[in-house]
UniProtKB/TrEMBL annotation:
Pfam families: cNMP_binding, EAL, GGDEF, PAS_9. SUPFAM superfamilies: cAMP-binding domain-like, EAL domain-like, Nucleotide cyclase, PYP-like sensor domain (PAS domain). This is EAL domain-containing protein. Residues 446-699 form the EAL domain. NCBIfam families: GGDEF, sensory_box. Residues 15-130 form the Cyclic nucleotide-binding domain. Residues 221-272 form the PAC domain. InterPro entries: Biofilm_reg_signaling, cNMP-bd_CS, cNMP-bd_dom, cNMP-bd_dom_sf, EAL_dom, EAL_sf, GGDEF_dom, Nucleotide_cyclase. Residues 304-437 form the GGDEF domain. The lineage of its organism: Bacteria, Pseudomonadati, Nitrospinota/Tectimicrobiota group, Nitrospinota, Nitrospinia. PANTHER family: BIOFILM ARCHITECTURE MAINTENANCE PROTEIN MBAA, DIGUANYLATE CYCLASE DGCP. GO terms for molecular function: catalytic activity.
Length: 701
């Protein structure tokens, strides 16, 4: 069936009418389409129920032990009760003719049904109505002859029914099923009042319900309540009340008492799914919004403050990727318990998804109180968290906004807390930051960069400039470093330090990185075609791009497209990136070496790599960070620079110094054995046209 036709059917279903058409389209595309032949069974009673279904065409017969329950046609939803309750199927289903269905699994149910409050409530009402129908209609009008005594009728009733004095509510008699249900003997139950059997129900309320029946303005009434059995257990029931239609001097009523435990269980399950995170049991976004609204309303009335904290775990992604999602889930559960243990009883902590949590702390006296609470939370992450005998070290970054100083509505307060969280992460993580208006400017600046960055990729607003790498002993140009530049029509020249972090966070860096590699290969080909001596170009890789599974494919594609030897393309990766996942880094570097690509460790000396690790890595260059070159005359930096050069020599690696700006720096580097360098002493980054001139001139420095 065409997707458009499926969407048309889905739109006709009442409970799905709250979803946008784009959401319905995703549901139609993601769901498994099934076809059944006549008499083919979809499922049988007692089978595990992990899916629900939507009928697109044809009819499905629902039956139990060959007893027909109902027939469902196009647009019908069924099978959801077993899915929600995680129970076996309570009936069987088979096709009447050719049938086409959509199968909805647990993940899709969570996303499109449980995750949509309006859809979930509509589904709950549908299920509730279905459950009521399944109870039958024990109180349908029964034409009974006046001369038949109600006491005699009770003896033959198959439902739990009580005959009650309408004035005193004393129970006169119970049907055999009612005696079994309550656990009393006939004599014992006849000594009780209906109020004795009801939990939290007063005489006034009961009289109000019964009055319309006695004055004949209504033929029946019904209530939902809890009854108390003889053994002390309680049970949710629906009680339907009718007059006896007898001529007794004392007015009497008949009460049908139906067990609705199953219905209540379904409602509780759906409520749990609607308002609580299934993994941690914490409130989810829906319940958080409710509680935050209540806290803000109370704070307005009483002139109080409310703190909103946005929490994000540091290093969670590394743990999740390295040790697996099961370990990640166990860690999130443990963190949830830590947060609940740390917070006050009146505070709410909710999980927003992933490793993000939000805390609502009402009735705080000052912003300082919010800071104290945040410090208590951070303290919980000082020690390792032990899960399945493994020590896991995670930190926590927290952003805080306060009502009414930082906003007077939920949306603004959450947005400002999120901005403060970004500030905390920029400050080195494992800390908290308070919202300040200055963050708004930075956030707007970031949004403008992100918005224009997406356009920049499409419009190819980027360019590469090149800084020569020079052999220090001869002054010859031995290579180039390709540096990315962005000239935005809206923002002007945007420096990499401003846009690269945004590109990494949004993963636009993958597209930018692919463009950079392709442009470098294209430029190498242009110089070769111009008859110039081949020169290598080194490209910087971000952490996101380095770990991307398509990296090698993109490199091969660009080398092949422009017929460039891999000898002329080099990649620079920072020490910090390599140390994030040493095994993955080693594997990627080996694959690059097999391809013929040489790699350099950029900014060497600023990270924490070990000699034992370095000697096993397939790298070819160590780039000395510019800070050591700039302050080479200081004792510590001089010693570090000498150590790096000595390390390179012992491992058979070339050393390249960055940021050379003076003849003295160059001489120092030559004396200690550094082979290559780059910096403004030789040349600033220049355009490809200027590099062409340098190559033609065979420029030496």
């Amino acid at each position: 069936m065409e997707v458009s036709r499926k969407i048309q059917i889905l739109k006709s279903i009442d409970i799905l009418s709250f979803l946008h058409e784009a959401t319905l389209e995703r549901l139609a595309e993601e769901s498994l389409e099934m076809f059944l032949h006549p008499k083919e069974k979809l499922f049988i009673e007692g089978e595990e129920g992990k899916t629900m279904y939507i009928i697109l065409e044809g009819e499905i017969r629902i039956f139990k032990k060959e007893l027909d329950i109902t027939v469902m046609g196009p647009g019908s939803i069924f099978g959801e009760m077993a899915l929600i309750e995680n129970q076996p199927r309570s009936a069987s289903a088979e096709a009447l003719g050719q049938v086409e269905l959509l199968e909805i699994d647990e993940e899709q149910f969570q996303r499109y049904f449980a995750g949509q409050p309006q859809v979930l409530m509509a589904l709950m009402k549908t299920m509730s109505a279905r459950f009521r129908r399944s109870l039958g209609n024990p109180v349908a009008p029964i034409m009974i002859e006046d001369q038949i005594d109600p006491l005699e009728r009770l003896d033959h009733m198959e439902d739990p029914v009580l005959l009650v004095n309408a004035n005193t509510f004393k129970i006169i008699k119970g049907s055999p099923p009612a005696i079994d249900q309550f656990g009393y003997s006939q004599e014992e139950i006849s000594n009780l009042s209906l109020l004795d059997c009801l939990v939290k129900f007063d005489e006034s309320s009961l009289k109000t319900i019964i009055a319309p029946i006695l004055n004949q303005t209504r033929s029946q009434s019904s209530i939902e309540a809890e009854i108390k059995k003889k053994n002390g257990e309680t049970m949710p029931v629906e009680i339907k009340i009718r007059p006896t239609n007898s001529n007794n001097a004392v007015p009497m009523i008949m009460t049908w008492v139906s067990d609705i435990s199953g219905k209540k269980h379904i409602e509780d399950t759906i409520r749990q799914m609607a308002y609580y995170d299934p993994l941690t049991g914490l409130p989810n976004r829906n319940l958080l919004n409710d509680r935050l609204a209540v806290s803000l309303a109370r704070a307005r009335r009483n002139g109080e403050k409310v703190a909103i904290m946005f929490l994000d775990l540091d290093n969670f992604k590394t743990i999740n990727d390295t040790l697996g999602h099961d370990m990640g889930d166990l860690l999130l559960k443990d963190v949830a318990k830590k947060l609940q243990h740390t917070l006050r009883q009146e505070d709410t902590v909710a999980r927003m998804g992933g490793d993000e949590f939000i805390v609502v702390a009402p009735e705080i006296k000052s912003t300082e109180d919010a800071g104290i609470l945040a410090q208590k939370i951070l303290h919980q992450f000082l020690d390792a968290i032990v899960i399945e005998n493994q020590e896991l070290f995670v930190g926590c970054s927290i952003g805080i906004s306060t009502f009414p100083e930082d906003g007077t509505d939920s949306k603004t307060l959450l947005k400002n807390a999120d901005m403060a969280l970004y500030r905390a992460k920029d400050r080195g993580k494992n800390n908290f930051q308070l919202y300040t208006p200055a963050l708004n400017f930075k956030a707007m600046e970031r949004m403008a960069i992100e918005k224009n960055l997406r356009k920049a990729v499409e419009r190819e607003e980027f360019d590469l400039v090149f800084q020569p790498k020079v052999e220090l002993a001869t002054g010859k140009i031995v290579g180039l470093e390709g540096l990315l530049r962005w000239d935005s029509p809206e923002l002007g020249r945007v420096m990499p330090v401003a846009f690269i972090p945004v590109a990494e966070d949004t993963r636009i860096i993958i597209q930018i990185g692919s463009w950079t590699i392709r442009r470098a290969c294209q430029q190498i080909r242009e110089w070769i075609d111009a008859g110039l001596p081949p020169v290598s170009i080194a490209i910087n890789l971000s952490g996101v791009q380095f770990a991307h599974p398509q990296l090698l494919k993109e490199i091969r594609k660009s080398l092949h497209e422009f017929d460039v030897s891999p000898d002329y393309l080099q990649l620079e990766i920072t020490e910090t990136i390599l140390m994030k996942d040493t095994d993955l880094a080693a594997d990627i570097l080996r694959q690059l070496e097999e391809l013929g690509i040489k790699a350099a460790i950029d900014d060497f000396g600023t990270g924490y790599s070990s000699l034992n690790y370095l000697k096993n890595l397939p790298i070819h260059y160590l780039k000395i960070d510019r800070t050591f070159v700039r302050d080479y005359s200081q004792g510590t930096n001089s010693a570090i620079t000498k150590t790096i050069v000595g390390l390179g020599q012992s491992l058979g690696l070339k050393t390249i110094a960055e940021g050379i700006e003076s003849e003295e720096q160059k001489q120092f580097l030559l004396e200690i054995g550094c082979e290559e360098g780059q910096g403004y002493l030789f040349s600033p980054p220049v355009s490809s046209k200027e590099v062409t001139g340098l190559l033609i001139e065979k420029k030496t420095y």
